[in-house]
Amino acid sequence: MIPYEEVILEHWRNPRNKGRLPAPDVDVVEANPLCGDVIRLQLEVRDGRVKDVRFDGRGCAISQAAASLLTEMIKGKTIPDLKGFSDQELLTALGGVVKTRLSCALLPLRALKKALSSL
Amino acid sequence: MMDLAKVRADFPIFQKERPLVYLDSAATSQRPVQVIEAVSEFYRKKNANVHRGIYSLAAEATELYEEARAKVAGLIGAAPEEVVFTHGTTEALNLAAFSLGELLVGRGDEILVTAMEHHANLIPWQLLAKRKAARLVPVGITPEGELDLGELARRISPRTKIVALVHVSNVLGTINPVAEVAELARRVGAKLVVDAAQSAPHMPLDVRELGADLLTFSGHKMLGPTGIGVLWARGELLSEMPPFLVGGEMIREVWLDHATWADPPAKFEAGTPPFAQAVGLGAAVDYLSSLGMEKVRQHDLALTAKALEGLLSRDYVTVYGPKDPERRGGVIAFNLRGIHPHDVATLLDQEGIAIRAGHHCAQPLHRLLDIPASCRVSFYLYNSMEEVDLFLSALDRVWEALR
Prior knowledge:
- The complex is a heterodimer.
- Chain A is α+β, with helices and mostly antiparallel strands.
- Chain A has one domain (6-117): Sufe protein. Chain: A.
- Chain A has helices at residues 6-13, 61-74, 79-83, 87-93, 102-117, and strands at 26-32, 37-46, 49-58.
- Chain B has 14 helices and 15 strands.
- In chain B, the strands form four sheets. Chain B has a seven-stranded mixed beta sheet, sandwiched between helices. A four-stranded antiparallel beta sheet of chain B has the order 11-12-15-14, covered by helices on one side. In chain B, strands 1-13 form a two-stranded parallel sheet.
- In chain B, helix 4 runs parallel beside helix 5 (123-132).
- Classes of the chains: A alpha+beta, B alpha/beta.
């Protein structure tokens, strides 16, 4: 019955990098008003790289798992690298997401784009 | 009792190879072949613009359009000239807010709304209050999810010009005591606007018994086509109300600098009306009438009672709204402990069960319930007791998978 890949369930149950940074360089909130999903994303940037990252939020399994996975994927990456981060990259890492739920999966990526544009 | 097998056979969408358990009729109903054929036959054989042509095809189309109006009027105990066709409940409520607002509301006046309104019966009143420097006065709900009638009685006053009330909540399922509210409104001279989108399709409804002044509903939630809705208002009120949308066909005479209006209902039907959709709605009313609205209500009630009992007996489920099925329409909103409604809906979809998840266009109510969203099942005349069982057992599997 589970249409979610194991990676989604695993990240949902054991989120990585969840919490707050003491002194983030950027701190953004992105929400999906349709379902009430909320993602807060914080980045610490050193020498043009993501030195550390945290997320916090509430919502469905897909949005929260995607946020957790995204934090792992972006840690240590350079800012120009991240500007090219595509929707497909995240969706592939999630093992695919049913089309009715794309907006859930991509919410954390919207938060990342917002964070990058405010750097 | 209804012959359920016969009813289901009328709905082509249930003939698909993969069985569909459709539990989202509060969003839109499915359509029987009688309605689909009526619309198709109209386009094939009767199509012409209504109330315009001199030729016989146009006269025939006009006759069918007006026949549909009479059928709708008959369903709700109204006179045909009191029935205005709109493009849906939302347009009907915008018409009501604009037109009644022009007629009745001034600076410092009050408009009563409730915490359980659909956005369509809330935002038009918000904008009206702003335009007229009037006050929007909200009335809350009880912990059981019913209208707080005591609070309404305290808040209504001679300053109240309009009371806007949903008949059956599209989230809580609550059937509101319209007749009692009508009496309170009548005493202070306020007009009562009733959003019947979730009640007109599901239960016998008589506008005189309800005591409302204005009432709205949609065709697509009652087996009819999309793009058609109904606004009913008392004849004398409708005559006084100024028009909302203006343009062709709603006029008596037009000069370059001014115009006069046709009598209702034409006054409120500017432009080419959704006439094929009206014919389809007429066929839907025929279908419902042949079954009998009381039987439709009893069928909904049996399904709701079974689903409600099943949901309430599961300790991982929270149900919103009245626990007594008799006090509800065929709508149940609920949540699974710690699981987001979208995850529930996606997993049920894997088993061919279609339910709604979200805020159901009632954000203030969800805020009041302190939840971001909810799951919702809703029933109609084609749903079966077996489908309720399928849904409940699938829900157990969702819980096992995600707990």
